[in-house]
Design goal:
Elements lengths: L1 E5 L1 H15 L8 H11 L4 E9 L2 E11 L2 E4 L12 E2 L4 H14 L4 E7 L4 H12 L3 E14 L4 H6 L3 H17 L2 E5 L11 H14 L9 H14 L5 E8 L2 E11 L2 E9 L8 H15 L4 E6 L3 H5 L3 E11 L2
Parallel strand pairs: 4-6, 11-12
Antiparallel strand pairs: 1-2, 2-3, 3-4, 3-5, 6-13, 7-12, 7-13, 8-9, 9-10, 10-11
Helix pairs in contact: 1-2, 2-8, 3-4, 7-8
Length: 328
């Protein structure tokens, strides 16, 4: 194996090649996501993207950036819930040995890698290699994410919930359905009306500001630019989808979802507070879970954060870690 430098464009094409064999382990490693992030936020960094090449084919990728003497993943922790490397099974140890040698030659003194799942390559493969090479590797638990397996029917899903929560969901659903004309759908459902359109993101941002006043500081003009760009990049392929709840013909709640690896990842949500009496914020998530089950997805991932509603809807926590490697 040899290790080679590539730019963002090279990363995107090679990531597609590697992920064609490995699958996409999490949505924040998709070429669309990485490219969109770099185009909007990458101006303050130098890219440090290394690709392992074997028999003329890419087999592993380190999507990193440099600030000062520290290398971190491409992306930012406020909008990237999971981060990691990309590698074909069996190629990790050799690649990480070459990577750490290259990092040292580049006079990078530290790798600071955050939001790592316990099954990430950074934790399971890179950390042991770093220790074997006598570098100082420190792993710390920094936050949690919540997820759950999806059964084959929505009724079976409700049966997994606490009795009180199950009763409350059914009560809220009856109240919503009995008094209103209700429609819920995913974009990208192969129906022209529900396919990709820039209008969906515009409507989502409108709803976001209607009920997320306390989070308005997060949705800066630059962040709005990023949201529009990632929808433009990933919406047409169906990797990024909206779940839309309409009441009496009005779109009142939306959930922003990733659909990959036979899983649905709940990334963000927004709703019209004037319909809060119908619990449209919560029920848009419940209906999105029902839809995920109906289209055969096997896992629901609430992503980073320990908000109460995630446990209320059946999520169980996994720890997310940081890995800091100081080069000896």
């Amino acid at each position: 194996m040899i290790i080679s430098n590539v730019d963002i464009t090279g990363l995107c094409s090679m990531a597609k090649m590697v992920q064609a064999e490995t699958g996409i382990s999490n949505p924040f490693l998709t070429p669309e996501w990485i490219l969109s992030w770099w185009e909007v936020f990458g101006g303050d960094y130098s890219s440090y993207i290394k690709v392992g090449i074997q028999d003329t084919k890419p087999v592993a990728i380190a999507p990193l950036k440099i600030s000062g003497d520290t290398a971190t993943f491409l992306g930012s922790t406020d909008i990237c819930d999971y981060q990691d490397f990309i590698a074909i099974n069996g190629k990790e140890e050799e690649f990480f040995t070459l990577l750490l040698d290259d990092v040292k030659k580049e006079k990078i003194r530290r790798l600071h890698l955050r939001h790592l799942r316990p099954d990430s390559l950074a934790i399971t493969e890179l950390a042991p290699v770093a220790c074997a090479l006598k570098h100082r590797a420190t792993v710390k638990q920094e936050t949690v994410s919540l997820e759950m397996p999806l059964p084959s029917t929505f009724s079976a899903y409700l049966d997994t919930l606490d009795k009180k929560n199950r009763h409350e969901i059914r009560r809220k659903m009856r109240r919503l359905l009995e008094a209103n004309r209700v429609k819920f759908y995913y974009t990208g459902d192969n129906y022209s009306r529900y396919s990709y359109s820039p209008e969906y993101m515009q409507d989502f941002l409108r709803l976001f500001f209607l009920n997320q006043i306390e989070k308005a500081a997060f949705m800066t003009p630059l962040m709005q630019q990023f949201f529009n760009k990632i929808w433009e990049q990933a919406g047409p392929s169906g990797v990024l989808r909206f779940g839309c709840l309409e009441v009496d013909g009005e779109r009142v709640a939306m959930v922003l979802l990733f659909d990959c690896n036979n899983s649905i990842f709940l990334y963000n949500n927004a709703y019209n507070f004037s319909h809060a009496n119908l619990s449209v914020g919560l029920l848009s998530k419940v209906l999105a879970i029902e839809k995920a089950i109906n289209i055969g997805r096997c896992k629901w991932d609430f992503l980073k954060g320990d908000e109460k509603y995630k446990r209320w809807l059946g999520g169980t926590s996994i720890n997310l870690y940081s890995l800091e490697i100081e080069l000896s």
